[in-house]
Structures are given as structure tokens and as C-alpha cells.
Amino acid sequence: MIAREWKCRVPDIHSEGFTAYLYETGIKDSSTTPGFRGAQIFRRSLAGKLELTLITYWDNLESIEAFAGTDISQARLYPEDEVYELEPELSVQHYEVIEHQFSAEQRG
């Protein structure tokens, strides 16, 4: 399994709207691509901005290419990104997943 990591920043005022938009674009498009295994979104506050990290999980590099195009090292961006004053990283990172176990038990 391969993990694909992409990061971006948006001003705090766009945090909720952009997160919903990210689901409607990147997550929705990814999830309809054969070989997609799942996704996680992480966020953290910076000075006046929110940083988001999107990690998607894929069967193999060919699956990622079906989603991202032939140059899988480039981020896939969307026309409406500028509405959210998006500061995207233009490249993505790929990692071989060697452990992916989560506990079924939830801790409070």
C-alpha cells in the first residue's frame, strides 16, 4: 500500500469552508478512483492560518497515476482553490506503508 501526502495552508477565516470543499474535491475524486483505500485529514493551527495535511492510501503507484496523472509527484489542484486563498504545496510525497494497524478500542 502507498500513502500520498499533500499539505496546504488557508487563512483561519476559511478553515471550515475549505475542509468541506476538500471533501467535495480531493476526497470525492480520490474515492471514485480504482485502487483508492482511504484518506485522513490532519490540521493544525499556525499564526492566523490553518495547515491541513491530506493523506490518501492507494493499492499501488498505478492507482495514484489514474487519479493524479502521469507525473504523480505534482499536486492535483482545483479551479476554486483560490476562493479559499489556498497556499498549496505543489508537490506531494509518497510512502510505502509498512504498518497500518489501528486499535478498535476508543480511548477518551
UniProtKB/TrEMBL annotation:
InterPro entries (alphabetical): ABM_dom, Dimeric_a/b-barrel
Key words of the record: Monooxygenase, Oxidoreductase
Single GO MF annotation: monooxygenase activity
Database matches in SUPFAM superfamilies: Dimeric alpha+beta barrel
ABM domain residues: 20-74
EC number(s) per entry: 1.14.-.-
Full protein name: Antibiotic biosynthesis monooxygenase family protein
